[in-house]
Specification:
Layout (H helix, E strand, L loop, with lengths): L1 E6 L2 H10 L7 E6 L9 E2 L7 H10 L4 E4 L3 H4 L2 H7 L7 E5 L1 H8 L1 H10 L7 E5 L3 H9 L5 E5 L8 E4 L2 H12 L9 E5 L5 E9 L4 E3 L4 E2 L2 E3 L3 E4 L4 E4 L6 H21 L4 E12 L2 E8 L7 H4 L7 H6 L5 H4 L8 E9 L22 E4 L2 E4 L2 E4 L3 E9 L2 H14 L5 E2 L9
Parallel strand pairs: 1-2, 1-4, 2-3, 4-5
Antiparallel strand pairs: 5-16, 6-9, 7-8, 7-9, 10-11, 10-16, 12-15, 13-14, 15-18, 16-17, 18-22, 18-23, 19-22, 20-21
Helix pairs in contact: 5-6, 7-8
The structure holds adenosine monophosphate and glycine.
The site of adenosine monophosphate has 14 residues, from strand 7, strand 8 and strand 17.
Length: 422
């Protein structure tokens, strides 16, 4: 079987690492990939939004499965593009249709979907510049903190949580006048939920599904969950407070209604549903849907899948899917993300990375890295995820921390408190 993975981060390195272990794999390509994926398969310099070029490559190389890492190609309609072309419709694109990707691409769409299917989530209202007065009245009728969300994708910056009504009103006005361009022409105002977050990943073909290992990521740049939001500074799996009873609630109240909701709307969805959850006094509520795997959650979820993953993906859309077990490794896994100094604000690239070969007992997943001549250099804000197994979270984190200290590059930064709150 020939597989093409789209993307260039730690998530795509972890996906390709897992897929490459399959005995049924013939060739694996990663486009564009990074300095880590080049050791697993072949990096191909394709633009992940250039569907014509991806289709040409896939036809020439007889690709069977395309796994789409990030959301951008999905919200741009890559699934529908491959379905609509006679010469590419036989290729299985792992990712939802354009309609399904709206679960992530539009907060308002996601909220309406949850309401329709009685899925527990924060109460909300949605407003545009025409209904600004209603938005202000809505804010004034509620207590702080105020949660304002740009409806569309805003590079992870579109959610604001504000403590004062003055600030909330000001931000609402700015968002509706284009602070995030078109993405904030509609704003969702949500009830603030106080609790602890975790992430559940579901692999589905819209009818059948399997639940992947549960994970928790650490989004803020600073220790003690302080400072700016990032793509994710680390992750752990499993999550000690997410026990079987909690997972049962998630499955009954959230996963099953999500899958049946897709069917009711006749949405084609073959791929990952990433459900961002918050436990409020032991009751799970949905914070958001994403239509792809999480990063760095994938760097702890893939190591904890004990089964051959490729046949499971290949069986999506067939009854065989239900016959293939997806076993979870009982060990814990923790990922610590090494980032460039300054990230998530301005940072420099091109710093030489050394001592990767000195790492023992951890898996080094590359994110923003690139090979330049003999050297591997930094090429992004998030540079390397160091993932380790342990008998429990504490042990897994300790091994990742030891190796995070060994890998060296100028202005390296990482959080030393991953898993601290568990
Ligand atoms: P989102 O992009 O919707 O995941 O929001 C980004 C982050 O904002 C989440 O991971 C939460 O930490 C926080 N957040 C979003 N919605 C709420 C809410 N209703 N209550 C409390 N925190 C929230
Ligand atoms: N780590 C959060 C995300 O991938 O969106």
């Amino acid at each position: 079987m020939n597989v093409l993975i789209l993307g260039s981060g730690g998530r795509e390195h972890a996906l390709s690492w897992k897929i490459a272990q399959s005995p049924i794999l013939d060739n694996i390509y990663i486009a564009p990939g990074n300095a880590g994926t080049q050791d697993i398969g072949q990096n191909i310099p394709l633009d992940i939004l250039d569907f014509d070029a991806i289709a040409d490559f896939s036809i020439n190389e007889q690709i069977d499965i395309i796994i789409v890492g990030p959301e951008a190609p999905l919200v741009a309609g890559i699934f529908d593009y491959f379905q609509d072309r006679e010469d590419t419709k036989h290729i299985k694109v792992i990712g939802p249709s354009l309609e399904g990707s709206k679960l992530e691409g539009s907060k308002s769409y996601g909220k309406v979907f949850m309401m329709e299917n009685d899925i527990p989530t924060a109460a909300y209202g949605e407003f545009t510049s025409q209904t600004l007065d209603g938005g202000i009245a809505h804010l004034r009728a509620h207590k702080a903190p105020y949660v304002l969300k740009a409806d569309g994708l805003a590079a992870g910056k579109g959610v604001l949580i504000l403590d004062s009504i003055e600030e909330a009103e000001q931000e609402l006005k700015e968002m509706l006048s284009g602070k995030f361009g078109d993405a904030s022409s509609t704003v969702v105002i949500e009830e603030f939920l106080d609790g602890i977050e975790f992430s559940v990943f579901v692999l589905t073909d819209g009818t059948r599904y399997k639940v992947l290992p549960v994970a928790k990521d650490y989004k803020r740049i600073g220790e003690g969950d302080t400072g700016l939001n990032t793509g994710g500074m680390g992750a752990v799996s499993p999550v000690p407070f997410v026990d079987d009873a909690m997972m049962k609630k998630v499955e009954e109240r959230i996963i099953k209604p999500t899958i049946s909701g897709l069917q009711k709307r006749d949405i084609a969805y073959t791929g990952f549903v990433f459900i961002g959850l918050i436990s409020v006094e032991g009751e799970p509520k949905v914070i958001e849907y994403n239509c792809r795997m999480g990063d760095p959650e994938t760097e702890v979820v893939m190591p904890r899948i004990d089964s051959d993953f490729l046949p499971i993906i290949a069986a999506l859309g067939t009854d065989e899917f239900d016959d293939l077990p997806l076993d979870h490794d009982p060990r814990s896994c923790a990922a610590v993300m090494l980032v460039s100094g300054g990230y998530p604000e301005a940072y420099e690239k091109g710093k030489s990375i050394t001592a990767i070969e000195k790492v023992e007992d951890s898996i080094v997943f590359h994110a923003g890295t690139k090979q330049v001549g003999e050297e591997i250099v930094t090429n992004g804000g998030r540079v390397i995820a160091v993932s380790s197994y342990g008998d429990d979270t504490t042990e897994a984190v300790a091994i990742s921390m030891k190796n995070a200290a060994i890998i060296t590059f100028d202005k390296k930064n990482y959080r030393k408190d991953i898993g601290f709150d568990l």
